[in-house]
Design a protein that fits this description.
heterotrimer, A mainly alpha (about 325), B mainly alpha (about 325), C alpha/beta (about 500), A: about 325 residues, mainly alpha, two-stranded antiparallel ribbon, 15 helices, disordered C terminus, C: about 500 residues, alpha/beta, Rossmann fold, 2 domains, six-stranded mixed sheet, 18 helices
Chain lengths: ~325, ~325, ~500
């Protein structure tokens, strides 16, 4: 139990519960299952992206191109749907996901094969991917009336009271729980982040593992491309602009260390949920939604400050032995 | 080892000549790129070589370079500030607020600059005072600073800046030379001297190479880094004055995405993203290149977003090419 | 112990070059089952290159490796791992954030039928492996960062056993261990010997080598210069092979009459690292600090230098109270510190020699804060030449110099500040014998010129050869202080440092 109390995931969950409770005091009716399901639905895409980003951050890298990747993959399926409404939506999902994977793999190749820092590569691809959206769409938007009804429905159909969008997130979270704790690839992400030198000696290919992390991040961004376009029923150059930093913020709040090797699936999910709860709570308690950005900024700063305090402990105790012997 | 036998073991200062190393340096390569772009541009469009259109072209990068200059020092010291564009927004918002209370032009400028300094000090305190990683801290303050602008402004805008205020972003010092361009030249010189010709600059390099050894050498690492964050805040404040004056309005979405453009300029300029190496010359020429590309494509009626593809590709390939070349050469050997 | 035995692993004619350096030249090495072979050589002799070749990090340019008589190609660390070769490294590089069990099994974890990691089986097997080597006190679920260095070694050994490694390489495993922990490690190595493992043991300490090893192989300048059974040879013989000439260790200590007191430390304490430290230092004196690794000596020195804050106590310089809150203030007051970790704390390896030398005295070479390169070169030349630095040019990067020459650059940096007290922390650790002598000679000369010197060293000959007085520390406290005269026996120092012969 005391071990449990030390987990930051536990405290983050407590904080989220407290936040929901406090909002409910001001605006009764906030803490209902339906409302909460709505918040989870709003945070689903962020959760999925945060999981992909987590894997990248674990390997001591960062992927700033996720939002551009999402927007580009989303635009591609939007255009396909507009041109050929007959193509079944699962096929479009597969296209978005594969295309996202391709974009992620491109990032990964530059980082793995040429050894260029991840922040430089993804900074470059961030602008390139977004520029390409403009090119393929000819500067046009894909508006709500252009989408087929099934394209829009595949995130909205309800199953057991929750929309498919939430179920996608649930499946991906479960898949990640298994990936991160029960497969050697998942453990390699941790090993590479904790100690790259030792990872080499343990027979882990550090570059290849980093490459896989970017593939995974790209794959999820691509899938989210479909989810985003379907949920918000729009395809444009502006889709999810700047969202990469929100994704990083969710990870930081979830306790994923930017220096690599430390972080959990639960942390990433809770980090995303925390931002979702804040977004959901503001309008309910009559605070302008324009407060949201400053609050999530403050949350990130607070999370980093708290993380930093935890890291400073654990010094060497030379004197302790002497005192015990005396 | 060959020196062992010689009687007086006088070690030479340098082996290569400075000229030789200068010719094969990163800035020289960038100059070549810039010249090629210049020639291509002047062939592609008859309007390119006119002094006034060249002067117009400077407006789209001068404000960014001002930030990039300070950012270069910060990155060389092994830190980064992603909140610069948000500082611009906040400083602009504060100026707009002051305007509502009837502030005059000097007061507006003062408020813009002081806001920048306060934001820089806040970042600096979090990073050096609490010992937190700057990349995460400034992702946080990036949301926080711009968030305050949104709280103040919502989807409104401040307008109606006094006529004398418009000089900073629209005025000309002499003939085609704008105030912005003049400030860019002066600041580039100041930063060149600061980084390459002073003790402070030397300490910045030492910290970026190895901050532990720098501390163990008696350098006040925290103080130097704090000053760098302060400088970055200051330059963002100045850029905010220029930009607000040029646009003659303040919106919370002002200068969105500039932090990444400034970082791109710095990295393209040959500053190592890992810290410890880089030159101001490189950053300035990289800025000119980005300006030339944007301007040249603009003359050809290519939309701005497409230029971002070129800039992004430039960033990756300019760094990838030397590595690819080295790999290729090693393989042939 | 018959030499008729077949070697478990045999390397022959191995060469490896890097641009400009010939690291290994046609070396040979044989390791026999159930025996410990000591690999002996100075730093730069090619030991670590050999280890990296055996663990698949480097590919040899030529030569052959046979395991159990069959030629193998160790194309990757994983291949070496599968060939049954495992290494326990300097400072035990493992994964701090992962559990002990995972550290043991990473790369070959037990799987369930669905190919998923079987944590239950992994923890159970880790538990039995750990108890097999007498480490039942380590719970498999413990995160590695919560273990002491000695316990981390035990985890590393358990890892070696878990893969049934036949060849175990131990690269300076004792460097950061206490006396007691070293004895435990040797017992464990005896166990591995009985299990028939072929062990390669790398150490600089002859007492350890003679305690545990059966055979020796000596490297010098990337070549194998001798091998054989330890019982057939003498220590002098091995030293002769190492350095290529006979050396009798003579320390160039000059007799100096100490001047007035420069530094006085009273009741200096830190919450966790040291307690009630008090000593005085006089002009022209060399004060040795002896103790086991981890006795808190470096921590005291770094606190005097302003790196860590003491909780109480006072420092007096020239009989005036001095408050030192940062290295910058220490330098201003004339106290400088040559750290043990040269690469991380001493030299800025990515910068030129002259900039390293002037780094702490920029206010002297500059004018109104502006650099003057000519002055910098002048200052750098003055001090590097006094220290007999070997370098191609003064704008060469420090990272390209040998360890000994890097140390000279660090010392030159401090001498350029004209200090009153210089603290040298393990000043000759890991540097070649030539540079070692140069540093000793210089230290002695500095003292005779009136500088006050503190030398932290774990090497007995060095501490006894160079010091005027010797302070012994153990577990964060000063145990005793000796005048260094002919009556002082090394055994007395060792006993004081290890806490032997006292009521427990």
């Amino acid at each position: 139990m005391s071990q449990f109390l030390k987990l930051r995931e536990f405290w983050l969950a407590v904080l989220i519960a407290a936040l929901v409770f406090a909002t409910n005091m001001r605006a009764p009716g906030f803490a209902t299952p339906e409302r909460f399901a709505g918040i989870v639905e709003d945070s689903s895409i962020l959760m999925i992206l945060a999981l992909g980003q987590m894997v990248v951050i674990l390997t001591r890298s960062i992927d700033l191109s996720v939002a551009s990747n999402l927007a580009l993959s989303g635009m591609i399926v939007a255009l396909i749907n507009k041109a050929a409404p007959g193509i079944p939506v699962p096929a479009l999902m597969l296209i978005a996901t594969s295309f996202g994977l391709l974009l992620g793999a491109l990032n990964g190749l530059f980082i793995w094969r040429l050894g260029i820092p991840a922040i430089v590569v993804t900074l470059g691809s961030l602008t390139i991917y977004r520029g390409v959206i403009f090119l393929i769409a000819g500067g046009q938007w894909v508006n709500a009336d252009a989408f087929s009804s099934s394209f829009v429905a595949y995130t909205r159909i309800e199953f057991l009271g929750l929309s498919l969008l939430v179920w996608y997130a649930v499946v991906i979270v479960i898949a990640f729980l298994i990936l991160m704790s029960r497969t050697s690839l998942g453990r390699s992400f941790y090993a590479v982040g904790v100690n790259p030198t030792a990872a080499v000696y343990a027979g882990i290919d550090v570059g290849r593992t980093t490459f896989y992390a970017f593939c995974l991040s790209g794959l999820l961004s691509g899938f989210c491309g479909y989810l985003w376009v379907s949920r918000y029923v729009i395809g444009s150059v502006e889709v999810a602009r700047g969202y990469e930093l929100t994704v990083v913020a969710a990870c930081v709040i979830g306790g994923i260390s930017i220096s690599g090797g430390v972080g959990t699936v639960a942390g990433a999910v809770l980090g995303a949920l925390f931002l979702g709860v804040i977004n959901g709570a503001l309008p309910v308690i009559n605070i302008s939604p324009f407060w949201q950005m400053a609050i999530s900024g403050a949350a990130i700063i607070l999370a980093v400050v708290l993380n930093g305090r935890g890291a400073k402990r654990g010094q060497r105790l030379i004197l302790k032995n002497a005192e015990a012997a005396a | 080892m060959s020196l062992q036998s010689t009687e007086t073991r006088r070690i030479p200062d340098r082996l290569g000549t400075p000229l030789k190393s200068a010719i094969f340096s990163w800035p020289s390569l960038l100059i070549v790129v810039a010249v090629v772009l210049f020639v291509v541009n002047s062939l592609a469009s008859p309007y390119f070589l006119s002094p006034w259109s060249l002067s117009d072209a400077t407006f789209n990068f001068t404000e960014k370079v001002l930030i990039a200059l300070a950012m270069a020092l910060l990155i060389i010291a092994g830190e980064i500030d992603l909140s610069v564009a948000s500082i611009i927004a906040l400083a602009s918002t504060m100026m707009g607020l002051a305007l509502q209370y009837g502030a005059n032009t000097p007061e507006l400028v003062l408020i813009g600059i002081v806001t920048g300094l306060v934001c820089g000090a806040f970042n600096g305190f979090l990073v050096t005072g609490l010992g937190l990683p700057s990349i995460v801290v400034t992702i946080g303050t990036m949301s926080f600073f711009r968030g305050i602008s949104y709280i103040v402004l919502g989807d409104e805008a401040f307008k109606g800046y006094p006529a004398s205020f418009s000089y900073f972003g629209q005025g000309y010092v002499f003939w085609v030379f704008s105030f912005e361009f003049a400030l860019f030249v002066v600041c580039s010189l100041i930063y060149y001297v600061l980084l390459h010709r002073t003790n402070f600059g030397r300490q910045v390099f030492a910290i970026g190479n190895n901050d532990v050894a720098a501390r163990f050498s008696g350098i006040r690492v925290e103080r130097v880094k704090f000053i760098l964050f302060l400088l970055t805040g200051l330059m963002s404040g100045i850029a905010s004055v220029l930009l607000t004056s040029r646009l003659d309005s303040t919106r919370p979405s002002i200068a969105v995405g500039w932090e990444l453009e400034a970082v791109t300029m710095v990295v393209l300029g040959g500053v190592s993203i890992l810290g410890g190496a880089g030159t101001i010359q490189g950053v300035v020429i990289a800025a000119l290149i980005m300006g030339l590309v944007t301007f040249g494509l603009g003359l050809l009626n290519v939309p701005g977003i497409v230029m971002s593809i070129v800039i992004g590709a430039l960033l990756i390939f300019v760094i990838a090419l030397p590595i690819l070349f080295r790999k290729f050469r090693n393989r042939r050997r | 112990m018959t030499s008729q035995k077949e070697p478990k692993i045999e390397l022959s004619g191995i060469s490896k070059s890097f641009p400009g350096v010939r690291a290994l030249h046609k070396v040979a090495l044989r390791l026999y089952p159930g025996e410990v072979t000591a690999l002996i050589g100075e730093n730069g002799a090619g030991k670590s290159t050999l280890v990296k070749t055996m663990t698949g990090i480097y590919q040899p340019d030529e030569g052959e490796i046979r395991v159990s008589g069959k030629p193998v190609v160790l194309s990757s660390p994983h291949a070496a791992f599968q060939a049954g070769i495992t290494a326990i490294h300097q400072e035990t590089v493992l994964f701090d954030e992962l559990s002990a069990a995972e550290n043991i099994f990473l790369g070959h974890t037990p799987r369930t039928a669905l190919k998923l990691i079987d944590w239950r089986a992994m923890n159970a097997r880790a538990k039995s492996l750990l108890s097999e080597i007498g480490a039942a006190h380590i719970a498999p679920e413990t995160k590695l960062k919560e273990l002491s260095i000695a316990n981390k070694h035990l985890v590393a050994v358990a890892r070696a056993l878990s893969v049934n490694a036949e060849v175990v390489i131990m690269d300076e495993p004792t460097a950061a261990l206490s006396y007691k922990e070293i004895q435990d490690l040797f017992e464990l190595m005896d166990l591995l010997k009985r299990q028939g493992k072929a062990i390669l043991f790398i150490s600089h300490k002859f007492d350890e080598i003679y305690r545990i090893a059966d055979r020796y192989t000596v490297f010098r300048d990337g070549e194998m210069v001798g091998e054989g059974l330890l019982k057939d040879t003498s220590q002098q013989e091995i030293v002769r092979m190492m350095v290529g000439r006979a050396v009798d260790q003579v320390f160039p200590k000059k007799q100096v009459t100490p001047g007035p007191e420069v530094l006085k430390v009273v009741g200096y304490s830190h919450p966790t690292e040291f307690d009630d430290i008090g000593f005085s230092l006089r002009k022209g004196e060399i004060l040795g600090f002896y103790g086991l690794v981890g006795a808190g000596r470096s921590e005291v020195m770094q606190s005097l230098f302003g790196i860590t804050k003491p909780s109480k106590g006072a420092v007096r310089i020239d009989n005036e109270v001095a408050v030192i809150r940062s290295p910058a203030e220490a330098v201003e007051k004339g106290i400088v510190y040559v750290p043990e970790d040269r690469g991380k704390q001493g030299a800025v390896t990515g910068m030129p020699i002259f900039q390293n030398v002037t780094l702490a005295s920029l206010n002297k070479t500059s004018k109104h804060g502006f650099l003057r390169l000519a002055e910098e070169f002048k200052l750098a030349r003055e001090f590097t030449e006094r220290l007999d630095l070997r370098a191609a040019s003064l704008d060469q990067h420090v990272g390209n110099l040998s360890g000994g020459n890097q140390q000279k650059v660090v010392i030159a940096k401090w001498l350029a500040t004209k200090p009153r007290v210089i603290i040298l922390d393990e000043p000759t650790k890991g540097i070649d014998i030539g540079s070692k002598a140069a540093v000793h000679e210089f230290m002695s000369e500095l003292a005779s010129q009136g500088l006050a010197v503190i030398m932290v060293s774990s090497e007995l000959p060095e501490i006894m050869g160079m010091s005027d007085r010797i302070v012994v520390m153990r577990e964060g406290r000063i145990v005793t202080e000796f005048e260094n005269n002919a009556d002082l026996k090394p055994e007395a120092l060792v006993r004081a440092a290890a806490g032997i012969g006292e009521a427990a």
